[in-house]
């Protein structure tokens, strides 16, 4: 055992010897050599802090309410056991290893204060701070995984004592209790927590920085009409608290970057600046608006005015097209980013948590739409959910990672799946190439701009299978492409194993009699406007008439083009003729 501990000690020394503290230099984040660093990161939402929408529980919202509902069906003891296992299973070294392999160089940890210290109301001695080892131990483990992968870990106080805003799920806030802004005791605990964290990690170079308050959203001057602080002019309490936190950190840690966020979900900096520390980064958050220079001009102007770095501390929840555009935009301006989030239920993250059997019955009961399941039924469902959150049981979405890393740098396309044409081959329509919109596919509506008035687009309307901006739904026979409009197309890179003549047909469904499609091979049209049969029902798939084409052995690229839209598309079939 002594030898093992000694070996681990020297491994730790070796890792740290290669590490360099991040710091600010004018308007850039740099390492100790002065080299500019672009942080490409992922947030671990849902691990220490659950938000209802992540698990189809938007009607519950806050984590404490989810806990109450679980206790209602399985009791307090099993609820406690469930959350112990959740924290063990949700994020492990396998997750961090995978993110490093995918190309990410940093992790943002959304922390819930109650894993590190007791709530103010539960303190046995008023005004004192009871420290809980659980949160610190989890952070230590995560940091060790990051070290091995040479990734920076950014600590983010996502749920501050009392809650920092009127968007309740973000901070697991109970509105019946005093918020962070309504309680001096909550603010003192927040300051003390950051001092404790800074003291623990002061000499850890793989800690990239301290994101001290996530998305404050509070109306200080006009709480009735501006309850989320988007129109706040002064932000005096926010600035005052962040200065106090910084002062406490600097008493024990002179090295690490302090990351600040404005009011109104991190973006309202009126009255917050100028900065009060010489190692400070301004974070902003970006969701659902256009990816143009104009969309971030305010932050670019602040960077220039105050000569301080920017960091896109949170973004995501959209289609791959939007991801590539947004990341390309900020990297063009030398700005790093952290995406939201690694895993949840749904397709717009690298990993998808599968819904366990019986989960809908739980949701129906909790939402008042169905009967209460038995304790055994509910526990079995929750046990399966605990298995489903594990990395090895998640559904990996390679298209999401490709859009965030490779596609930002390249317009080239790569196969989504390996397609080999032989004697009789069926290629699923949904398995088109990975790449940018207009390079791997074209859809007239490829992203959501929900925060842009008058723009009502949705990306993948079916919200299934993959996150590209192409409409996909799932039926009895699997996933298919739907809502196909005239001019839209999909590309497939294939390998022909044997040269020869092949019959080609398309499995489609339509309730119209005027639809048609074309097939291109290596940019040359080889089937022009083939008429598609009206199948009478949009779920009644039938094969089109066949065409004969000649193929050479080797790699080739096909594009299926909607010459006249209005159909749904399931597959292409190639059959070698004699």
UniProtKB/TrEMBL annotation:
Keyword Hydrolase: yes
SMART domains: CBD_IV (SM00606)
Gene Ontology CC: cell surface; extracellular region
GO biological process, one term: glucan catabolic process
Pfam families: CBM_6, Cellulase
Residue span, CBM6 domain: 447-575
Entry keyword set: Glycosidase, Hydrolase, Signal
One of the record's GO molecular function terms: beta-glucosidase activity
UniProt-recorded name of the protein: Carbohydrate-binding protein
Similarity field: Belongs to the glycosyl hydrolase 5 (cellulase A) family.
Source taxon at top rank: Bacteria
